[in-house]
């Protein structure tokens, strides 16, 4: 990525570095898995997928790094991607094509929306992949802890077909989150490469769940 952008004479690599600094400053107080490290992992996984599937790396990097900077949970006042637009405007990049992709990436409830472009599809896969595997397990329990959720309660059953409002307000257990969302992601991948990575990580999570429930039930 060494193309020069015409207006401000920063290279694309320099813009990506600036973007990471910007995202770090916005998400520095976030401890439930939406930090700059999440955004960097999404970008790197998206690059892995791009190697096989193609797509514009610069666009992938911007969508990855900016995909959570206006998340409704972190910035409830933002209704029009204010944070993403601010950065893109400062570097004279047309914001609409990037924010349109960002808005279609998030998985909400049981809605399945596919981003329009290959780059958006790749970042959506990478974002979902970051909720899987060992990191996915860690993020789920970090989120559950912060939101005072129980790890597990046999009497609270998973509710798989939730609409967005129910999903947002649910106080289900963290183990239920695996059945309500995480185990479903593998079948929602857009790309073959994404599917391959997601499958491996889902197998790991299934083994984790089995071990967790075996240990839990052996205590009775
Ligand atoms: P993203 O915006 O990165 O697509 P989310 O905002 O849906 O993802 O979730 C961020 C992280 O928090 C994910 O790893 C997800 O599994 C976890 N998480 C979200 N909701 C819950 C929940 N109800 N219980 C446990 N973990 C959750
Ligand atoms: Ni994300």
Number of strands: 0
Strand content is: under 5%
Mean pLDDT: 89
| Overall body shape | globular
| Rg measurement, Å | 18 Å
Q: How does the major sheet shape up? A: none
Ligands, deduplicated: adenosine-5'-diphosphate, nickel (II) ion
The run of helices and strands is: HHHHHHHHHH
**What proportion of the residues is helical, as a percent range?**
55-70%
* Unreliable runs: none
Number of helices: 10
Structural class: mainly alpha
Alpha-carbon distance between the termini? 57 Å
Salient structural properties:
single chain; mainly alpha; 10 helices; 59% helix; globular; binds adenosine-5'-diphosphate
Structure, explained:
This protein has 220 residues and is an all-alpha fold. Helix content is 59%, strand content 0%. It contains ten helices and no strands. It has helices at residues 12-27, 36-53, 57-66, 82-90, 95-105, 118-129, 133-146, 164-169, 174-180, 192-217. The site of nickel (II) ion has 4 residues, from loops. Adenosine-5'-diphosphate is lined by residues 32-33, 68, 71, 106-107, 127, 131, 136, 139-140, 143-144, 174, 177, 182.
């Amino acid at each position: 990525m060494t193309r020069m952008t015409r207006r401000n004479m920063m290279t694309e690599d320099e813009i990506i570095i600036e973007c990471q600094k910007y995202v770090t400053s916005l998400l520095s107080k976030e401890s439930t898995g939406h930090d700059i490290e999440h955004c960097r992992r999404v970008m790197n996984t998206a690059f892995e997928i791009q190697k096989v599937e193609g797509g514009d790396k610069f666009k992938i990097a911007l969508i990855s790094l900016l995909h959570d900077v206006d998340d409704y949970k972190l910035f409830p006042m933002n209704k029009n991607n204010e944070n993403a637009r601010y950065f893109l405007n400062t570097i004279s990049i047309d914001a609409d094509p990037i924010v349109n992709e960002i808005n279609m990436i998030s998985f909400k409830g049981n809605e399945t929306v596919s981003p329009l472009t290959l780059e958006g599809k790749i970042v959506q896969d990478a974002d979902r992949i970051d909720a899987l595997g060992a990191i996915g397990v860690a993020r789920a329990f970090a989120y559950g802890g912060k939101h005072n959720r129980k790890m597990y309660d046999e009497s609270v059953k998973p509710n798989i077909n939730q609409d967005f409002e129910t999903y947002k307000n649910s106080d289900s257990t963290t183990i239920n989150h695996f059945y309500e969302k995480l185990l479903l992601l593998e079948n929602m991948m857009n790309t073959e490469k994404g599917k391959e990575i997601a499958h491996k990580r889902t197998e790991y999570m299934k083994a984790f769940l089995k071990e967790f429930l075996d240990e839990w039930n052996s205590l009775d």
